[in-house]
Amino acid sequence: MGRHKKIERRREIERRRRRRLKRLKMRAKQLEEKK
Hints:
Elements: H1 2-34
């Protein structure tokens, strides 16, 4: 059970990191379009 909890936590961290990367990519794309 403990090991499973650790995996779930790691998955949550990965999801957050991915979401942040996606947001940064979107922002970068908008800046490129503004130019």
